[in-house]
Amino acid sequence: MDHDVLPMPESTSMDTVTLRPFVLADLDAMMAWASDPVVTAFMTWGPYTSRDALLAFLRDTVLPHPWFRAVCLGGAVVGAVSVTPTDDRCRAELCVVLARAHWGKGVATAAPKRAVAAVFGDLDGVERVEALVDVDNAASQRALEKAGFTREAVLRSYCVVKGRLRDMVMYSFISTDPLVK
Amino acid sequence: MEPAAADGDARRAEEPAPPLVSLRPLGLDDTDDFMAWASDDRVMRYLKRPLCANREQAVAQIRDTVLGHPWFRAVCVDGGHPVGQVSVWPYADDGGRRANIGYALAHDHWGRGIVAAAIKMVVGRVFDELPGLERLEAVTDVENVRSQRVLEKAGFHNEGILRSYIAGRAGGKAKDAVIYSFLSSDRA
User: Fold this and answer.
1) Into how many domains does chain A fold?
2) CATH 3.40.50.880 fits B21-183, yes or no
3) Looking at the record, which segments are called Disordered (chain B) (predicted)?
4) Which of A153-167, B61-75, B89-103, B128-142 is the least confident region?
5) pTM (2 decimals)?
6) Is residue A118 part of a domain?
């Protein structure tokens, strides 16, 4: 019996998820996720309680950053994806954060897909994009795997998040890896 | 026909006693000994430190990267002069909880278990000497099998292979690496 392949939610998101540089006017949109303790539970930063502090971050870190993008769904800014070069010129670290209202729609998969499609051309010398995800953050792990990242290792007691020492899963996408459609 | 040996062990050549390894700070007085490994590409090829081509560069390296280092030790054998180095460098962004261990040994002394012994000594004391340290990490090139064996002998855990992790030399392609760790809680 023939099965028609139904379009996955991700493919809908892929059509409408775009990345663009941030501008100061994005501050309020940023506040929506940066002030949300559920969103920042697995992050080493946040939640932001002060608009001024977030403005300083946007102005001083985001705008001059080598690769920091707003994740847009339709016309709205719903999250951020950054790829930050490390001391080793061949590797850069990817971070994705999304407003909770847009979880579970495939945006968390679409954003890193878009990022790795662009970043190797943009960041000279980078051959490896890596991401560290909390061992308990199953949703983010799944999103990266669907975006074509390879799970490489569990790094024990790697960093402190919200006062607790955490094991982190290391993921990577190499410049020669096939892009996931 | 040879008579059977009464004691099979008597036929074995006597094994040399394992070297007695000690660690101490390294200073400018040790420059000539430092040169023995720091100028040798066979030793330094997998390290990020630049090769010392002459004594002046060795002095500069000791002055700039050893004297102020958070935890750097010369490796000595049988109470003699330094034959290598071992260092623990906390990562900048982590409040001192995570640190990288590196080591180098003069080529003449390879194959005697010296580095494994030195690393075991480091593991025995560095968690007390660097307060807050939770995780010691070592990253080795996948081709550096010798170094991997040393870390395994010293009780480090192989956590996995990180692809294209180490920048290639002279602009070459990045190399895959094996990452190892030893936690404060791994101490028996």
Assistant:
1) 1
2) no
3) 1-20
4) B89-103
5) 0.89
6) yes
